[in-house]
Write a structure and sequence with these properties.
432 residues; mainly alpha; 0% strand; ARF guanine-nucleotide exchange factor GNOM
Length: 432
């Protein structure tokens, strides 16, 4: 399957060859170009017998006339059309394609729908400066295709990958539409499960390309939420997880593209890869490293805030950073309960680093009691419960006692690290 519908196929060939051949000999056709040729040659009724030489000659002249009209230029040079003409052209293509229907569709009707969709995508890309004029109609047409398709077919393939192409091409130029373009990719999440499974690997590869080319143009939580969702669902997919994790690593490694807008979303996505067994233990450990490494971004943002912001603004950002830190350590706590000894022990040591390596953040005091209650003591309780479980549970969690020892060492080090960070009475209340 090509992940770039229409790639390598000039628009002129699509118009003048594949679809013009339909009118060389009179035949029954429900296709767009078949009906178009009948209209131009004044064939209002289907022929009842074999065509005469005169009829064949007339059709040949019709074909030549259509070719001389260079109909393809309407689409390839659509950027020169007046706004109203461009809008009417797009509407005509959507009308000619017909409304997608669930169930069986004739090959002729699907060919027509695919042809019209390719042209619609082409004029959309050729008119990026006027995308606001076309976008609503294009989006609704693609949405109708995606939501009405229950089996993999050429039409839904063109729709999904055409949508990805539009986003890839327009994101660098349309910052004001970035959120809307990225939000449109949520259509991919609405694909029928059978269709999504068939295209998941190719979709993830395209999303990975989009992220690598446009990460700097995705700046809001709205846009990143769509990207994180598309990557997260690949964590347990045997074919797509590699591309999904590669894209996530591109964003998170060394904090390259982490920001307050995507921090929590990416940390949660990394946790899902850490908990997944699709990529074996090595990938899970790498995902934990991505989570733990992200704490360096929090330290850097806190330092930058104190140096460059007014006191009130810096205090607000430090509060937000505290919330992000709390979500990070909560995510690591969950991985500390993984059945695989290597993964949970690595997560526990990473959690210890994230708890003791934040002195430069100057976390507001209220976060430490929350951390002890929601992360450290909860983790100790869960590990103790597993260690005291039945033989089957202990078999599933090999050497859980060793993990519990590491957890107790973590508690000791964190208490040593925070002698004055939390009020003793609050800590005693939590313990009680």
């Amino acid at each position: 399957m090509s992940s770039d519908p229409g790639h390598g196929k000039p628009l002129t060939n699509s118009l003048s060859s594949a679809h013009m051949q339909a009118i060389g000999t009179p035949r029954r056709s429900s296709g767009l170009m078949g009906r178009f040729s009948q209209l131009l040659s004044l064939d209002t009724e289907e022929p009842r017998s074999q065509p005469t030489e005169q009829q064949l000659a007339a059709h040949q002249r019709t074909l030549q006339t259509i070719q001389k009209c260079h109909i393809d230029s309407i689409f390839t040079e659509s950027k020169f059309l007046q706004a109203d003409s461009l809008l009417q052209l797009a509407r005509a293509l959507i009308w000619a394609a017909g409304r997608p229907q669930k169930g069986n569709t004739s090959p002729e009707d699907e060919d027509t729908a695919v042809f019209c969709l390719e042209l619609l995508i082409a004029i959309t890309l050729n008119n990026r400066d006027r995308i606001g004029l076309l976008w609503q109609g294009v989006y609704e047409h693609i949405a109708n295709i995606v939501q009405s398709t229950v089996v993999a077919c050429a039409l839904v393939e063109k729709a999904v990958f055409g949508l990805l192409r539009i986003c890839q091409r327009l994101l660098p130029y349309k910052e004001n539409l970035a959120d809307e373009l990225l939000r449109s990719l949520q259509l991919v999440l609405k694909l029928d499960a059978r269709v999504a499974d068939q295209y998941c690997e190719q979709i993830t590869q395209e999303v990975s390309r989009l992220v690598k080319a446009n990460a700097t143009h995705i700046r809001t939580p709205v846009g990143w939420r769509t990207i994180a969702s598309l990557l997260s669902i690949t964590a347990r997919h045997p074919d797509a997880s590699e591309s999904g994790f590669e894209a996530l690593s591109f964003i998170m490694a060394d904090g390259a593209h982490l920001s307050p807008a995507n921090f929590v979303l990416c940390v949660d996505a990394a946790r899902q890869f850490a908990e997944s067994r699709v990529g074996q233990t090595d990938r899970s450990v790498h995902a934990v490293d991505l989570m733990a490494g992200s704490v360096a971004c929090l330290v850097r943002w806190a330092q930058d805030a104190r140096e460059a912001m007014a006191e009130a603004e810096a205090a607000k950002l430090c509060q937000d950073i505290g919330e992000m830190w709390l979500r990070l350590v909560q995510g690591l706590r969950k991985v500390c309960l993984d059945q695989r000894e290597e993964v949970r022990n690595h997560a526990l040591l990473s959690l210890q680093m994230c708890l003791t390596g934040v002195d430069e953040i100057h976390l507001p005091l209220g976060f430490w009691p929350q951390c002890f209650e929601m992360v450290i003591f909860t983790m100790l309780d869960d590990l103790a419960e597993i260690a005291q479980g039945n033989p089957q549970t202990q078999k599933e969690y090999r050497n859980i006692e060793g993990t519990l020892v590491l957890a107790l060492k973590l508690l000791t080090k964190v208490l040593t690290f925070t002698p004055g960070a939390i009020a003793i009475d609050k800590l005693l209340q939590i313990v009680a």
